[in-house]
From TrEMBL:
PROSITE patterns per the UniProt record, alphabetical: GNAT (PS51186)
N-acetyltransferase domain sequence ranges: 2-158
Keywords: Acyltransferase, Transferase
Organism expressing this protein natively: Candidatus Yanofskybacteria bacterium RIFCSPLOWO2_01_FULL_49_25
Full protein name: N-acetyltransferase domain-containing protein
InterPro entries: Acyl_CoA_acyltransferase, GNAT_dom, N-term/lysine_N-AcTrnsfr
Entry keyword annotation includes rRNA processing: no
Amino acid sequence: MITIDEYVSSDMQELQNLIAELHDAMMVFEPEIMMPGDVARKEYIPYLIEQTKEKNGKICFAKQKGKAIGLMAVRTEKDSDEAVQYAWVSDLVVISKERSKGIGAKLLAYADVYAQSNGLSYLKIGVLAVNKGARKLYFKTGFRNYADILIKKLEKGS
Protein backbone atom coordinates (compact mmCIF):
# COMPACT_ATOMS: atom_id res chain seq x y z
CA MET A 1 0.00 0.00 0.00
CA ILE A 2 1.27 3.46 -0.93
CA THR A 3 0.80 6.33 1.51
CA ILE A 4 1.40 10.02 0.90
CA ASP A 5 3.15 11.59 3.89
CA GLU A 6 4.20 15.18 4.43
CA TYR A 7 7.87 15.97 4.97
CA VAL A 8 9.21 16.36 8.50
CA SER A 9 12.81 17.21 9.35
CA SER A 10 13.64 13.58 10.19
CA ASP A 11 12.98 12.79 6.49
CA MET A 12 16.02 14.81 5.38
CA GLN A 13 18.06 11.81 4.23
CA GLU A 14 15.19 10.52 2.08
CA LEU A 15 14.64 14.02 0.68
CA GLN A 16 18.33 14.26 -0.22
CA ASN A 17 18.35 10.84 -1.87
CA LEU A 18 15.26 11.50 -3.98
CA ILE A 19 16.37 14.98 -5.07
CA ALA A 20 19.74 13.50 -6.06
CA GLU A 21 17.98 10.79 -8.07
CA LEU A 22 15.79 13.37 -9.81
CA HIS A 23 18.72 15.59 -10.76
CA ASP A 24 20.83 12.65 -11.93
CA ALA A 25 17.93 11.48 -14.11
CA MET A 26 17.49 14.96 -15.60
CA MET A 27 21.21 15.12 -16.34
CA VAL A 28 20.72 12.26 -18.80
CA PHE A 29 18.59 14.65 -20.85
CA GLU A 30 20.49 17.91 -20.24
CA PRO A 31 24.01 17.19 -18.93
CA GLU A 32 25.36 20.71 -19.56
CA ILE A 33 22.50 22.47 -17.79
CA MET A 34 21.21 20.32 -14.93
CA MET A 35 22.82 20.30 -11.51
CA PRO A 36 24.24 16.86 -10.58
CA GLY A 37 22.51 15.01 -7.76
CA ASP A 38 25.40 15.28 -5.29
CA VAL A 39 25.44 19.07 -5.77
CA ALA A 40 21.63 19.36 -5.62
CA ARG A 41 21.49 17.56 -2.30
CA LYS A 42 23.67 20.33 -0.80
CA GLU A 43 22.74 23.44 -2.77
CA TYR A 44 19.17 23.00 -4.01
CA ILE A 45 17.42 21.44 -1.01
CA PRO A 46 17.73 24.52 1.26
CA TYR A 47 16.11 26.58 -1.52
CA LEU A 48 13.33 24.01 -1.97
CA ILE A 49 12.55 23.95 1.76
CA GLU A 50 12.63 27.76 1.99
CA GLN A 51 10.35 28.25 -1.03
CA THR A 52 7.93 25.61 0.23
CA LYS A 53 7.64 27.26 3.65
CA GLU A 54 7.51 30.80 2.26
CA LYS A 55 4.75 29.98 -0.23
CA ASN A 56 2.44 27.87 1.93
CA GLY A 57 3.57 24.66 0.29
CA LYS A 58 4.08 21.00 1.08
CA ILE A 59 6.81 18.50 0.38
CA CYS A 60 5.33 15.01 0.22
CA PHE A 61 6.65 11.49 0.00
CA ALA A 62 5.05 8.45 -1.53
CA LYS A 63 5.95 5.69 0.90
CA GLN A 64 5.68 1.95 0.67
CA LYS A 65 6.23 -0.03 3.88
CA GLY A 66 7.64 3.14 5.45
CA LYS A 67 10.25 3.66 2.71
CA ALA A 68 10.15 6.78 0.53
CA ILE A 69 9.83 5.77 -3.12
CA GLY A 70 8.58 9.09 -4.52
CA LEU A 71 8.63 12.81 -3.83
CA MET A 72 6.75 15.91 -4.86
CA ALA A 73 6.70 19.53 -3.73
CA VAL A 74 3.74 21.86 -4.30
CA ARG A 75 3.35 25.52 -3.41
CA THR A 76 1.22 28.56 -4.19
CA GLU A 77 2.53 30.88 -6.90
CA LYS A 78 1.35 33.86 -8.96
CA ASP A 79 3.02 35.18 -12.07
CA SER A 80 3.02 38.96 -12.40
CA ASP A 81 1.41 38.83 -15.84
CA GLU A 82 -1.39 36.41 -14.96
CA ALA A 83 -4.72 37.00 -13.23
CA VAL A 84 -4.80 33.91 -10.98
CA GLN A 85 -2.75 32.21 -8.33
CA TYR A 86 -1.97 28.55 -8.98
CA ALA A 87 -0.37 25.55 -7.36
CA TRP A 88 3.14 24.94 -8.71
CA VAL A 89 4.22 21.30 -8.65
CA SER A 90 7.98 20.87 -8.52
CA ASP A 91 10.48 18.09 -8.06
CA LEU A 92 8.22 15.16 -8.87
CA VAL A 93 10.25 11.97 -8.84
CA VAL A 94 9.62 8.26 -8.34
CA ILE A 95 12.56 5.88 -7.88
CA SER A 96 13.38 4.16 -11.14
CA LYS A 97 12.28 0.63 -10.19
CA GLU A 98 8.84 1.89 -9.08
CA ARG A 99 8.00 4.03 -12.11
CA SER A 100 4.91 3.39 -14.26
CA LYS A 101 3.02 1.94 -11.30
CA GLY A 102 0.71 4.90 -10.61
CA ILE A 103 2.83 6.46 -7.84
CA GLY A 104 3.41 9.72 -9.71
CA ALA A 105 -0.34 9.95 -10.33
CA LYS A 106 -0.97 9.53 -6.59
CA LEU A 107 1.42 12.37 -5.82
CA LEU A 108 -0.29 14.55 -8.42
CA ALA A 109 -3.69 13.71 -6.89
CA TYR A 110 -2.32 15.04 -3.60
CA ALA A 111 -1.38 18.25 -5.45
CA ASP A 112 -4.99 18.50 -6.66
CA VAL A 113 -6.22 18.29 -3.05
CA TYR A 114 -3.64 20.87 -1.94
CA ALA A 115 -4.75 23.28 -4.69
CA GLN A 116 -8.45 22.88 -3.98
CA SER A 117 -7.99 23.22 -0.22
CA ASN A 118 -6.15 26.50 -0.85
CA GLY A 119 -8.88 27.84 -3.14
CA LEU A 120 -6.77 27.46 -6.29
CA SER A 121 -8.20 26.44 -9.64
CA TYR A 122 -5.01 25.56 -11.53
CA LEU A 123 -1.94 23.36 -11.23
CA LYS A 124 1.23 24.04 -13.22
CA ILE A 125 4.20 21.76 -13.66
CA GLY A 126 7.41 22.05 -15.65
CA VAL A 127 8.87 19.20 -17.68
CA LEU A 128 11.87 18.80 -19.93
CA ALA A 129 10.66 18.58 -23.52
CA VAL A 130 12.52 15.29 -24.08
CA ASN A 131 11.17 13.56 -20.95
CA LYS A 132 8.50 11.50 -22.71
CA GLY A 133 7.61 9.38 -19.66
CA ALA A 134 6.86 12.39 -17.46
CA ARG A 135 4.97 14.16 -20.25
CA LYS A 136 2.81 11.07 -20.77
CA LEU A 137 1.94 10.99 -17.04
CA TYR A 138 1.08 14.69 -16.97
CA PHE A 139 -1.21 14.54 -20.00
CA LYS A 140 -2.84 11.37 -18.63
CA THR A 141 -3.60 13.17 -15.34
CA GLY A 142 -5.24 16.15 -17.03
CA PHE A 143 -2.46 18.62 -17.75
CA ARG A 144 -2.31 20.36 -21.14
CA ASN A 145 0.32 22.40 -22.93
CA TYR A 146 0.26 25.99 -21.74
CA ALA A 147 3.60 27.64 -22.51
CA ASP A 148 6.92 26.59 -23.97
CA ILE A 149 10.34 27.77 -22.86
CA LEU A 150 12.96 27.57 -25.57
CA ILE A 151 16.70 27.51 -25.02
CA LYS A 152 19.62 28.36 -27.27
CA LYS A 153 23.25 27.60 -26.52
CA LEU A 154 25.47 30.51 -27.49
CA GLU A 155 28.82 29.91 -29.10
CA LYS A 156 31.77 31.42 -27.25
CA GLY A 157 32.63 34.86 -28.52
CA SER A 158 29.27 35.49 -30.19
